[in-house]
Write a structure and sequence with these properties.
By secondary structure, the chain is an alpha/beta fold. The structure holds flavin mononucleotide. The site of flavin mononucleotide has 30 residues, from strand 3, strand 9 and helix 9.
Amino acid sequence: MLKTAICNLLGIKHPIIQGGMVHLGTAELVSAVSNAGGLGIIGSGNSKPEWVRQQIHLTRQRTNKPFGVNILLISPFAKQVIELVLEEKVAVVTTGAGNPGVYIPQFKRAGIKVMPVVASVALAKRLERVGADAIVAEGMESGGEIGETTTIVLIPQVVDSVQIPVVAAGGIGDGRGLAAALALGAQGVQMGTRFVCSEECIAHPRYKEKILKARDRSTMITGQSIGSAMRCLQNKLTRQFLALEKAGTSREELDLFGQGRVYLGLIEGNVDEGSLLSGQIAGLIKEIKPVRVIIEEMVAEAGAIIDSLKKFLQGD
Ligand SMILES: Cc1cc2nc3c(=O)[nH]c(=O)nc-3n(C[C@H](O)[C@H](O)[C@H](O)COP(=O)(O)O)c2cc1C
C-alpha cells in the first residue's frame, strides 16, 4: 500500500491518476481506473457538452468511486462544459491548455476539487494562490500538448514552490516512475500513454500497436513554431506538418491542415495520416494489460523499490 496526501484529498486507494485524454477518456477507461483504486478522468477535449454529460452518467453507472473531468480550456465548448460539470458536481476537475484561475472559485463553491495541469513553477504558484487543491505538474516527455521543461526538473521545483500536493505527469509508465516521482516530492502520478495501452481504452488497435512498437526516440514535437507544441509518434503526418512549419505556413493554414487528425489517428486507426498522440514513455510499453493489472503492478513495484533503496544506507 502506498498512501499519500493525494489519496486522502481525492478519496482514492492508490496515488495513480489517469490523465484526461481527448476521445479516449471515456466511461470505459475512467470507470476501470476508478474501480481499480486510482482516479479516472473523462477527457472532454473539444467534445460537445452533451457528450461529456453522457460520459459522466455512463461512468456513474459503472462505478461509485470518485472520478474527474478534464476541461480543455481552448475548446470552443469550454464554458458550457464548465457549467455542466458544476451542475453534475463531479468530484474532481483538471484543466489543460491554459490558466483556469477565474473559474476556480466557482468549482470550490460547488465542492469540486480542482487540479490544474501546469508546465511551469510560475503558473503553479499563481493557481495555488487562487485556491487550487493540488497541482498536476507535467513535463515535456508527455503525450499531447506540452511545455518546455522535463519532469525530473519540473517536479522538485514545483514541490518547493507550493504547499498543496503535487502530482507528477510525463514519462511515467511503471513502478520505477512512480517511486521516482515520490522521491522528487510528488504525492502521486498522472499517466496518459501507459493507459492508452490498456484493455479498457477504446483507442484503435493499430494506434495501440504503434505505441507497443515505439522506441525511446519514436516521438516528435509538432506545432512549436506556432506556440502549440504537441508530442506524437512520428509518421507521415508529423513529417508533412514539420515541412509546412519550416516553410513558414501560417497558423490558420496549419490549424486547417491539422483538423480532425487526432480522431483519425486515435479512433479510426489511420496511423499514417492521423495524429498519434504519445509520450516518450511509449518506448517502455510492451504489452496491453487490464487497467487493474497496470495499477497493481505499479504499486507493488514502487513499494519494492522504495524498500530496496534502503540498502544504499548500509555503507560499504
Ligand atoms: C492520447 C492522449 C491524449 C491527451 N489528451 C489530453 C487532454 O485532452 N487534456 C489534457 O489536459 N491532457 C491530455 N493529455 C495528457 C495526459 O492527460 C497526461 O498528462 C500525459 O499523457 C502524461 O504523460 P505520459 O503520456 O508520459 O503519461 C493527453 C495525452 C495523451 C497520450
